[in-house]
Structure formats: structure tokens, C-alpha cells
Amino acid sequence: MSAPRSPTRLRPLWLALGFALCGLGFVGLWLPGFPGTVWFVLAAAAFSRGDPRWEAWLLARPVVGPMLADYRAGRGMPLRAKGVAALSIAVAVSLSLGRIPVLFGQVAWVLLGLAGIWYVTRRVPTRRGPP
């Protein structure tokens, strides 16, 4: 399910964005608390607009490909992954909250974190059983 191809002049920008997002995704595979899947989903979308060969390459990666296939098929996330995602959001918000000097910004940041936790836990389907 590829996105429509972009005009030729935009393809290099989509490719550059895809590589940058892919890099963040690979960092997320190794850094605890830094999600990788979301970056790979965005990278696949960018590659699909820039060059389908790079999208196919990303989908063929042994670890990343199944995650992207699950996302695209609407299978959702395993319960454990949802818990890790919600906990990561809570930790990131709490650790960075003190760096926001304005009360309005702090409230907005907490609300954004709560919205993220709500979305992951309530709106993203929970995958049961083996992938």
C-alpha cells in the first residue's frame, strides 16, 4: 500500500526525510525509552513518496519489516509494547517538565503526554497471541 508518487522535484526531499527518520528509528532500536517504530512508520511513508525501492528495502529488514507490516495491516501492538510506550511517555514528560519555564507550557506538555498515553492504550488495537 504505497502512497501516490510525488512530483519529481520533491522526491529527493522525501528520500532525505526517509533516511533521517530511518536513522532515528535505528537509534530507537538500541536506546531504551526512545521509540523506534514510529520513526520507521514515518520513514516508510516518506520512502513510498520518494522511491519505492527504499520502501521495499525497509520492509525487507528482519526486525523492522514485521513491525511495519503489523502497523499497515492494523494488527496493533502487543500489550507489553503498549505498556512500554505509555511508560516511556510518562517518564519523558516527567523528566522534561522542569525544563519548561512557563506554567501554561507545563500544563500543555502534561496534557499532550496524557493524550499520547490515552491514544496508545485506548485507540491502538492490542495484538493478542503471536505475530
From TrEMBL:
Q: Which InterPro entries match?
A: DUF454
Keywords in alphabetical order: Membrane, Transmembrane, Transmembrane helix
Q: Which residues cross the membrane?
A: 12-31, 103-121
Q: Does the keyword Cell cycle apply?
A: no
Pfam families found in the cross-reference section: DUF454
Query: Domain of life here?
Result: Bacteria
Q: What is this protein called?
A: YbaN family protein
Q: Could you tell me which species this protein originates from? A: Deinococcus petrolearius
Q: What is the lineage of its organism?
A: Bacteria, Thermotogati, Deinococcota, Deinococci, Deinococcales
